[in-house]
Amino acid sequence: MAKTDKVNFSTPSGFPEFLPTEKRLEVHLLDIIRKVYESYGFTPIETPVIERLEVLQAKGNQGDNIIYGISPILPPNRQAEKDKADKSSDNGSEARALKFDQTVPLAAYIARHLNDLTFPFARYQMDMVFRGERAKDGRFRQFRQCDIDVVGRRELSLLYDAQMPAIITEIFEKINIGDFRIRINNRKILTGFFQSVGVAANQIKACIAIIDNLEKIGEVKVKQELEKEGISIEGIDKTIQFINIKGSIDEMLGKLKHLSESMPEAEIFKLGVTELDTVIDGVRNLGVAENRYCIDLAIARGLDYYTGTVYETTLLGHEALGSICSGGRYEELVGVFLGEKMPGVGISIGLTRLISRLLKAGILNPLAATPAQVMVLNMQNDLMPVYLNVSQQLRKAGINVITSFDSRQLSKQFQLAEKQGIQFCVIIGSEEAVSQTAALKDLKTREQIQVSLDDLAAEIQQRLQV
Amino acid sequence: MAKTDKVNFSTPSGFPEFLPTEKRLEVHLLDIIRKVYESYGFTPIETPVIERLEVLQAKGNQGDNIIYGISPILPPNRQAEKDKADKSSDNGSEARALKFDQTVPLAAYIARHLNDLTFPFARYQMDMVFRGERAKDGRFRQFRQCDIDVVGRRELSLLYDAQMPAIITEIFEKINIGDFRIRINNRKILTGFFQSVGVAANQIKACIAIIDNLEKIGEVKVKQELEKEGISIEGIDKTIQFINIKGSIDEMLGKLKHLSESMPEAEIFKLGVTELDTVIDGVRNLGVAENRYCIDLAIARGLDYYTGTVYETTLLGHEALGSICSGGRYEELVGVFLGEKMPGVGISIGLTRLISRLLKAGILNPLAATPAQVMVLNMQNDLMPVYLNVSQQLRKAGINVITSFDSRQLSKQFQLAEKQGIQFCVIIGSEEAVSQTAALKDLKTREQIQVSLDDLAAEIQQRLQV
User: Fold this and answer.
1) Which residues in chain B have their CB less than 8 angstroms from residue A1's CB?
2) CA–CA separation, A366 and A362 (whole Å)
3) Beta strands A344-350 and A374-376: pairing type?
4) Does A103 appear as a known binding residue?
5) Which of A48, A206, A450, B225 has its CA at 20 to 30 Å from residue B260's CA atom?
6) Positions of the region Disordered (chains A, B) (predicted)?
């Protein structure tokens, strides 16, 4: 066969792909995440990869993202249509682009299907999003985000905020990635605090963004940046003192309530403390272990659409990974196309990046290269009907099976099974075929036993469960 | 909240999206399909949505497809980078586009990871593909294909071809869409037949394409088209006679073997019959019921890369839907980037289109709008700790639960549960809280019973299984 010359068949820069061992891990994690999301009643949706550009830019929150616009490329035999296509709104001139997050599409989805949805609308979405970032370490241009959001019409109970830490905890306990801590804060507390130290209303978002960078840039830099914003030395000192308040949940709530009493004018601060108190109360009633979460006054989430509760999740001992699950409550995001108040609360797991980093750090391991648990070996071609039949019996019992159609010697077939991480080999020669038995070899333990074909499925199932 | 004016928030033409009821059906079908694929040892992969244009066009088989090229759109605050980006190979000038099928990407994937894969390489892939088709009924510009392919190096046993009908059968029996028939043929038989009636080698593919259209255009049109190709009247008559040969599997094989004996020169015909015989033998040994498949000499698959076995699947009584699962064997497709012979065999289910058409035809029904099976109602806010606790107990038992945080009257909450298709409501008032019981209402049967909280999960599980 002639080789097609000179084609660079590598993936475009920033678009890596998983090996089967890694993709199987992703599928496994998606199953876990989906199951937890569904256990709280979140329902799946999927929005198109391609949206109208005006939709994607509606919130003005393209932010720093490079969006990928699309333009049709006609096949050589249809170049004549080009002019027509360029004129047709259906084919060319209406600007469309790839979605860069799942929040704007959620807003559009709700606007598109308002009368078909029930509210509060709790949805999960695990689609790919696309950003033309400069491709550098761990930054992908296509990546999967596993998001949940609950959206209400006009109002939304704070208990939805309380469910988020319970969901995060369940997911990461099931994924078994080690000790983690969910850091909870409320942006109203930060806003109220900055009001109380005399920061002007139009500067508050900038100040919050600065302290949100505390871990990245350090305290000295935070002070400098606050100074650049024109905050007084006293204000800066108070800020540093404030965001460094530490303690158990109860201690933190006590201190915040105490502070709020000493700030008679700070309505927003008080509201923030009350909201946080309600949320923490809900988290407790949901049975989340106290070592899984804390109140951290220094976290704020960069995105300025958050208005209340915010979350970040730190993998203890691996702080450099950054937050592995973040989110918060927002008021003015989802109703953008309808002009209606639609408060929401949500979290997001950047799964592609998380897997890639957890694999690199050795916290997670790739799975076997195949889902097959058993390989039925080919000892002699004339017994193939037996091999096919035994394979089907095992599949009917829920076992994943590869039948070897390989005519090479057994040792080669064993190698192939081992290389793919298959645990069991079933060996049937003419003697076994007559006696309706099989040799079952466990490639993990190197143990080999004789089993009657009738008991084979049960025997394998039992060993798989160990 | 101010409405963002004039934004057309509808999906772009040709990019529909599912409601939750429909998306849940898709998720359910994907689970079924994946499970069957994995039971035969197929392993998941996913290739990037975006590939180099030269990769997508490598096989020259953009065909009639309009490909979506991509071009970065800088955010307003980064327009200055535009010139630079246009010059940089990393950002602009290297042509990239959205994948339009999964076969070319599979070839690229194998080339990219050759040394990390084991062969025969059996993979499944259920990604979205993109084609700039004119959006007309049932034609989408973004759709999910659920593909499997097994690819060998140099050779590949025909028993892989035999597995495909077994896989198709299992999937559609599990989806429970009614009676279907897998039509099997071998393109070598058609090629050999046309040789035998004197059709020139360079015309054979065109003739095969014509008879492949038999169902679409009818016999009269097929005759006309063959005549246009310059086939003799005698040849046309023989062709019509040939593709109309009907009978049971054994009758068909008998007739084909008989024909091949009367064609001493037709090596390719003979080879095709031998291959078909081997494949059918394998299908039988895999235990596929005989009413699920047949030999149909008129099917060929339009795509001219198929070289041997071909499959189409017809839903009986709904022939107008076209083939619901098709595929075949190819020789010169996957090795294109490596210049190596890599025979493969695969099938594809065009899931998005299939779901959309089966829903329209009433063959499949949407699922409930939420995965939640239970709603724990809110009778009085002060019992919320109890509601949260009971909800968590049920979730631990594997039940999907929505806790109602609604403070409105119970009837409204019942309505909300019903509208979303939730089967059970759990009602706990102060009396129940004291006695550690709950009222369990089955919204399907309208039955209501009192259950102790300790037995609640078991009671619901039992009723869900009925």
Assistant:
1) 332, 335-336, 339-341
2) 10
3) unpaired
4) yes
5) B225
6) 71-94
Residue B423 lies in a domain: yes
A137 has pLDDT over 80:
no
- More reliable by pLDDT, B395 or A59: B395
Cross-chain Cβ contact A395/B335 below 8 Å: no
Domain termination residue (choose one: A327, A360, A393): A360
Residues A121 and A245 in one domain: yes
**Do the strands A180-186 and B180-186 form a parallel or antiparallel pair, or are they unpaired?**
unpaired
Distance, CA of B296 to CA of B312 (rounded, Å)? 9
**Candidates A62, A164, A388, partner chain B, best to mutate (most B CBs within 10 A):** A388
Four-residue CA torsion sign, B396, B402, B406, B410: negative
The pLDDT assigned to A301 comes to 84
Please give, rounded to a whole number of angstroms, the shortest distance from the CA of A33 to a CA of chain B: 13
Q: Taking a C-beta distance cutoff of 8 angstroms, is the pair A276, A184 a contact?
A: yes
- Where among A360, A395, A417 does a domain terminate? A360
* pLDDT reported for residue B262: 87
Indicate the pairing of strand A142-151 with strand A180-186: unpaired
CATH code for the domain in which residue B381 is found: 3.40.50.800
DSSP single-letter state for residue B90: I
* Beta-ladder partners of B370: none
B308 CB-near residues (< 8 Å, 6+ apart): B161, B186, B187, B188, B272, B275, B328, B329, B330, B331, B345
pLDDT confidence of B446, banded at 50, 70, 90? very high
Half-sphere exposure of B376 (CA within 13 A, CB side): 32
When CB atoms are compared, the residue of B74, B97, B400 closest to A66 is B74
Same domain, A139 and A61: yes
pLDDT of residue B346: 97
**Are the beta carbons of A337 and B11 separated by less than 8 Å?**
no
- Find chain A residues with C-beta within 8 A of B40's C-beta: 395, 400-402
Residues A280 and A222 in one domain: yes
The closest alpha carbon to A190, from A210, A218, A163, belongs to A210
The per-residue pLDDT for range B200-216, each reduced to its tens digit, is 999 999 999 999 988 88
Give the end-to-end CA distance of chain A in Å, rounded to a whole number: 48
Q: Return d(Cα B409, Cα B412) in angstroms, integer.
A: 6
Question: Which amino acid does the sequence have at B78?
Answer: R
* Number of domains composing chain B: 1
CA distance B345 to B342: 10
User: For residue range A319-336, what is the model confidence (pLDDT) as tens digits?
Assistant: 988 899 999 999 988 888
Which residues on B lie below 8 Å from A51 (Cβ)?
A: 11-12, 15
Q: Do A306 and A422 belong to one domain? A: no
Task: Decide if B130 contacts B56 (C-beta within 8 A).
Answer: no
* Same domain flag for A285 and A208: yes
Q: Residue A225's domain spans which residues? A: 20-360
Q: Is residue B345 a part of any domain in this protein?
A: no
Percent of chain A with pLDDT over 70: 94
- For B122, phi and psi rounded to 5 degrees? -110, 110
Find the residue in B nearest to A287 (Cα): B389
Ranges assigned E (strand) in B388-455: 401-403, 424-427, 437-442, 448-452
Q: What does the DSSP 8-state code read for residue B11? A: P
Q: How many other C-beta atoms are found inside a 10 Å radius of the C-beta of residue A360?
A: 12
Q: Do residues A329 and A420 share a domain?
A: no
pLDDT band at B3 (very low <50, low <70, confident <90, very high): low
Per the domain annotation, does B411 fall within a domain? yes
pLDDT value of position A62: 65
What residues of chain A lie within 8 A of the CB of B420, using their CB? 118
- Facing B66 at nearest CB: one of A16, A73, A123: A73
Greatest mean pLDDT range, A221-230, A298-307, A355-364, B390-399: B390-399
CA distance B457 to B462: 9
Residue range A339-363, pLDDT digits in tens: 999 999 999 999 999 999 999 999 9
Is A401 found in the same domain as A337?
A: no
